[in-house]
Amino acid sequence: MMMATAARALYPNPEELYEEWQFVIRQGNEYFEAQEFRIAIARYQQAISLATRLQDNYSDFRMAIMAVIVSYHNLADCYLALEQPNQCLSELLSVHEKMMQLIHSVSHQSEQNQDIAFWGARRTYTALMLHKKEHPQSFQAGHLHQMAELSNQYRKEFLC
């Protein structure tokens, strides 16, 4: 609760928080394109922090969820560029778990927010499956078990 109050004090207007996220993500992209991956990583981590706060305060829930996903996926791309597929996988798993948790936390909210949460989970699940196909060596036994659990959860949530 204290953190949300601090975030509101820093960004009384969620639009300002979104603009700050856009600025930081653009910086990260510029550093990524310049192959300054360590600096890009720092910017994307900052973007994740901003996007997470945005998720709780922004009236456009879809844009907030998109900001979270983009931030994590860009960070994962940095780790791939640094030839660290295990760290990439870790970020992809983290954001997918966040989306799965989001599905449950919005279950009492509007149907629109539920649809957005499902959209986010489908997006992150697809990224995980692509990573698994392109970098199977990054999946260790523990990852495969976690992926099996996520697959089962995915099937329950989306196909039933």
Keyword list:
mainly alpha; disordered N terminus; 160 residues
Describe the structure.
With 160 residues, the chain is mainly α. It is built from seven helices and no strands. It has helices spanning 2-10, 14-33, 37-57, 61-81, 85-105, 111-134, 141-159. Helix 2 packs antiparallel against helix 3 (37-57).
Itemize the secondary structure elements and their pairings.
Blueprint: H1 2-10, H2 14-33, H3 37-57, H4 61-81, H5 85-105, H6 111-134, H7 141-159
Structure summary:
The protein is mainly α. It has helices at 2-10, 14-33, 37-57, 61-81, 85-105, 111-134, 141-159.
Kindly provide the radius of gyration, computed on alpha-carbon positions and rounded to a whole number of angstroms: 16 Å
Average pLDDT metric: 85
**Beta-strand share of residues:** under 5%
Largest sheet: none
**Structural category:** mainly alpha
What string gives the helices and strands in order? HHHHHHH
Instruction: Report how far apart the termini are.
Output: 35 Å
The number of E-state strands comes to 0
Q: What level of helicity do the residues show?
A: over 70%
Shape: flat
Low-confidence stretches: 1-8
Number of helices: 7
